[in-house]
What does this fold into?
Amino acid sequence: MGSRLTFAWLSRLKFASGVLVGAVIAGASITAAACSSGSGSQSTTPAAGTATAAAADASPASVSPSRVSSGPTPVDASSFQLEPVTGEFDSYIIQIPQGWQTEEIAAPGGFIRRYVMFQSDTRTRMASITLRCEPGAAVDLMMQEDAKVVDSVNGKYGLGGTKDVRVANLSGKQTDYTVTAGAPVASRVVYLGGASCGWRILFQVFGGGELQPYAQLFDKMLATFQPGTPGG
It folds into this structure.
């Protein structure tokens, strides 16, 4: 059974380099409808079929301005109680704050999964963490892909430079970027090189919020990440 799951998992994740990169870059095809959905813990959002289409679809202009947060939102990482969640076919495990809602993003041949913090009274999208596996992708390749997409939507990639990181015994890089057209999105992304997967772990703050108030929370979640088998 384990070998069958492993084969199925890898088969579903074998999609072309560059496909869906833009979908992850600035909110992964977040539409006004998705932002204003009133209830339910899950939603499925079709992903764009090419990097060019994805870049356009992922532009923050597609996020309803009335449904994103405005201004910095200080958070206390210690105030969030984390709970473990697993990826499709047990491809990873990570701990996220209780109450964050799961969004399944349709991907040809693979999957992307996002966990979102909404403001409870207004359903405003405040922050999210997104995980994606790109089979066989090197860290440098993923960074190049993302830089191109961010540039295509007039964003700024590599803010503050790039630093080396090590998460779950995987080596990688971390950098920040912003997309400022429409409703601003601030992003911090960690790229990790695994035996089967190149991992993107993307943390985003919406509506003009700043990354720094959330930095400790992101680090707290990131420290719990473990790739599954065969995700390492």
About this structure: The chain has one domain: 2-227. Helices lie at 2-12, 21-25, 32-36, 51-57, 139-152, 215-222. Residues 72 and 210 are 5 Å apart (CA to CA).
